[in-house]
Design a protein that fits this description.
DjlA_N, TerB-like, Tellurite resistance protein TerB, 7 helices, alpha+beta, 5 strands, about 20% strand
Length: about 210
């Protein structure tokens, strides 16, 4: 007679939750595991209580059931706020790629933040952001490469639109800015057609939202 033990796992519930690893909403399954005594590899008698865990449908990691009590709405709102700040910083860095900032670029950044991102921004605070960015000396390419893995496709699209609008504030893109945008296209994994569509959308936004306001 061959006697042993094994765990039987079953799905008890499923739904949506905020996954800390994925940093976003993902499907989950609530799984219950229970040890059984086996005879000839057949489970016969339960020898312990059920243990529950949550399995993320995105990253496949397991979590304690307490993860389901996280405030999903609050987490998503916080992430949205963080994304807006990241987009604004990236737009500032694009403008500073040639180490100078003009009045037209200042006005463009103020409009992008206040009107497009709905993030209140005064000239004084913008000056502080620019000063900090210049002191740190981080290139926009390195900044986007560091943070963009957290961006959804929608955020990536919005970020590129804002960066283009900031870079083209004076009408013509300077070579460092154009090179930067093309590198960002590669970092975000955008095809040439997608990149062109985003640029065209940006021009429409400039006409309908930002110009003469």
């Amino acid at each position: 007679m061959i006697i042993g033990t094994m765990n039987l796992t079953r799905t008890r519930d499923s739904g949506q939750f905020f996954c800390p690893t994925c940093e976003g909403t993902q499907p989950y399954r609530l799984r219950a595991a229970r040890p059984f005594l086996t005879i000839y590899f057949i489970p016969v008698i339960p020898i312990g209580g059920k243990e529950f865990h949550v399995r993320c449908g995105g990253c496949r990691q397991k979590w304690d059931t307490g993860v389901l009590t996280l405030d999903l709405a609050a987490e998503e709102a916080l992430r949205a706020e963080e994304a807006i700040e990241e987009i604004l910083r990236a737009s500032v860095l694009v403008v500073l790629a040639d180490d100078v900032i003009s009045e037209a670029e200042i006005q463009a950044l103020l409009k992008i933040s206040n009107q497009l991102l709905q993030r209140p921004l005064e000239r004084e605070e913008l000056g502080q952001l620019c000063s900090i960015a210049q002191q740190r000396g981080v290139r926009v390419i390195n900044y986007v490469r560091t943070i963009s893995h957290q961006w959804s496709p929608e955020i990536s699209r919005m970020a590129l639109q804002c960066m283009f609008l900031a870079a083209s504030a004076e009408g013509e893109l300077q070579p460092p800015q154009m090179e930067g945008l093309l590198e960002i296209q590669q970092i975000l994994g955008l095809r040439d057609e997608e990149f062109q569509n985003i640029i065209e959308e940006s021009l429409l936004i400039e006409e309908s939202v930002l110009r003469d306001r």
